[in-house]
Amino acid sequence: MRRGMLITLACALVLGSVMVVHSLLAWDEPDPTPPAYNPYPPGILPADLLSEIHRVQREIRGLEAEAMAKAKTLPPPSFTSNPPTIHGTGYESVETLGKLFQYDLRMSPFKNEACASCHMPYAAFSGPIPSVNLTMIAYPGSFHFRAGKRTAQRYTYSPDFPVLELNLTQSVPGVSAAFFGGNFWDARATGYLLQSPDSEQAQHPPVDTQEMGFPDTACIAFRLQTAPYRFLFEEIYGEGSLDINFPGNTEEICETPGGASVFGTSVTPIRLSPQDRSRANEVYNHWGQALSFFERSTNLSAFSSKFDASLATPPKYTLTANELAGYNLFRGKANCNSCHLDGRSTAPTPPPPEGTLPNSTDTGAAANTRPLFTCFGYSNLGLPLNPRDAFYYQKTPDFFNFTPNPYGFGYRDLGLGTFLRSGFGSADSPNKAWTQFAPLTDGQMQTMTARNVGLTPPRCPTTEAPGPYFQKEFFHNGYAKSLKQLVHFYNTRDVFPFPVTSGNCPVGKTEKVDCWPMPEVPNNIDMTVGNLGLSDTEENQIVAFLQTLTDGFTTPYPDINTFTGTCMSGGMAATQGNELLIPTPPLPPCADVICGVAPTPGPSPIP
Q1: Would you tell me which of 139, 354, 386, 514 could form a disulfide with 118, CB atoms 3.0–4.6 Å apart?
Q2: Cα(391)–Cα(387) distance, rounded to whole angstroms?
């Protein structure tokens, strides 16, 4: 469907009892989008959604211009050895290309969505819109307002995750399965082909129906043919590397988002010769590799935090009393260091709650490697289903006759378990030998690095109310809205459990304070947390330590000052965002397409 004239479309967004009408075409692209997809009840979409999308687009254009200016200053590559290596400027060239990829809005059907639309530097390359983090959880894609089902993960340090593997030594047959590595919350970017989960991760959003939304990976090569930085791509990967003969209807295909009924079940609707398809696939691999190299650079993974400075010889920073107390709790009584490894030994012997600081001394030596604060593993923390997640409401067809989630609230996010089954909402597993372990991993999500969990724009210097603060979201479903809530959940999940769903805590109880709703996935729950016996002061000390993991202390964090939005203030971190809690509706059983796929969840079925 060609869209050559500028038209104005209006979308009525009902927010509370107020009808707010917005123009869908307030951005500057020459091609309009079709009528918005808005299956949401009042209050799911934030009132400032469109203006915030436009703000982020303006910030992205500025960063793209910055990268483009850098690309033009690079000297022509010089190859003086075999195998051919870009002499002297290879790192700089590939990193700059990756940055251009990161901030290119043209890499989406409507030329309005870039990787950075969900991953901006001032949020540690996670979600840049505070109101989205409070309300709809997942970010809107190129076709508004399709949205994904999980929070936007931080890019920082993601290139350090190894290729996904099952550690049979640490696995117990019929009891547990120890998977390590991969990328995404559910591990679906295994890295099996490129031997880099991070490079593979960068290949998913461009063709995710809920995100950038191309219907064919070859659309990236097609758009790169006319990109202003084509010269840099060909300097790095060879003259003619983008010379692909695309059919005359390619633009029509690439401006139609994936999932459209016109494509049927085809995932390669662009008709290319085998030779051109192979060349387009190679271009797509380079897309992932360059983005991953940018993510590995000091622009993202800087190792420039207060904690890093404290490890220097001699130390360049001394942890405050609160920060040091938090660190000792982190690697001691709170047992955080069992999964978020700091490069030293874990103190508690025995594990908490029996283990305490006096009889659990960390005797490990200071790290002589880069502490990454993750074990690269997966865990089911027992989080409740979050009814604010936009994905639950996308059960009707959109303009393109695509229904993102026909199961509505019958959807359950089984995380790694769904991926091992090649199930709905994930991706195909490249290893059939893993399928048998799905019931042992249902509900498990990636153990992200704790680094940069508290990174925010400098003028909104914290994640915590009363602020001024930058509203972030934590965990895979955005359930926690502050680090205080995150730590309190780990501490008291099993102290204040209630057999209710989110938004339905009993009268007299406060959700996230003294009421934790029941888990979305009750199997395989991690029991090393939930009753840590921490005091309120100790929780706050752990938050203080987590904030020492924010990059930008020893050297300025690049592009962190690009935020042009508004800081928030008021309230308190313990109940941050609670005014926007909504009651979970009565839940239908888990849909058969999710929980009925062999091997089915066990030992008990998912309700």
Answers
A1: 139
A2: 9
> Exposed, middle or buried: residue 204 (CB in 10 Å: 0-12, 13-18, 19+)?
middle
Two structure tokens written together for 238: 């060879």
Report the C-alpha gap between 469 and 329 in whole angstroms: 25
Angle between helical axes of 230-237 and 90-102 (0-180°, round to 10): 140
How many CB atoms sit inside 10 A of residue 350's CB?
9
The pair of three-digit structure tokens given for residue 371, joined into one six-digit string: 């502490």
pLDDT confidence tier of residue 343, bands split at 50, 70 and 90: confident
Range list of H helices, 462-527: 483-492
How many angstroms from the chain centroid is the CA of residue 4?
Answer: 34
Cα 478 from Cα 462, distance rounded (Å): 17
Is residue 173 very low, low, confident or very high in pLDDT (cuts 50, 70, 90)? confident
Asked if 181 contacts 162 with a C-beta cutoff of 8 angstroms, the reply is yes
Distance CA 221, CA 524 (A): 42
Find where tokens 């660190």 sit.
327
pLDDT at 260: 97
Alpha helices (H) in 258-318, listed in sequence order? 274-296, 306-311
Residue for token digits 């780990």? Answer: 490
Least confident of 182-191, 332-341, 573-582: 332-341
Whether residue 83 is preceded by a cis peptide bond, meaning omega within 30 degrees of 0, is yes
User: In terms of DSSP H, where are the helices of 399-551?
Assistant: 416-420, 438-441, 483-492, 536-546
Q: How far apart are CA 307 and CA 312, in angstroms?
A: 9
At how many degrees (to 10) do helices 483-492 and 536-546 cross? Answer: 130
Structure tokens at 69: 């200016």
Could you read off the pLDDT of 561-596 as tens digits, one per residue?
999 999 999 999 999 999 999 999 999 999 999 999
What is d(CA 251, CA 4) in angstroms, rounded to the nearest whole number?
Answer: 12
Q: Taking 60 as the threshold, does the pLDDT of residue 261 lie above it?
A: yes
Q: Which helix (H) or strand (E) holds 21?
A: strand 18-23
d(CA 361, CA 341): 16
- The Cα-based distances of 77 to 71, 94, 129, 468 in angstroms read 12, 11, 39, 46
CA–CA dist 49, 129 (Å, integer): 8
**E strand intervals along 480-570:** none
| E strand or H helix that includes residue 492 | helix 483-492
CA dist 263 and 196 (Å) reads 30
Burial label, 403 (beta-carbon count in 10 A; 0-12, 13-18, 19+) = middle
Q: What is the pLDDT of residue 344?
A: 75
Q: Which residues pair with 444 in a beta bridge?
A: 415
Would the CA dihedral through 443, 449, 453, 457 be positive or negative? negative
Nearest CA to 225 among 240, 205, 207? Answer: 240
Question: What pLDDT sits at residue 345?
Answer: 65
Report how far residue 155's alpha carbon sits from residue 299's, in angstroms, rounded to the nearest whole number.
11
Q: Cβ of 320: how many Cβ atoms within 10 Å?
A: 14
Q: Which residue has the tokens 């979409």?
A: 45
Q: d(Cα 274, Cα 598) in Å, to the nearest integer?
A: 35
Strand, helix or coil for residue 118:
coil
How far apart are the C-alpha atoms of 191 and 285, rounded to whole Å?
Answer: 11
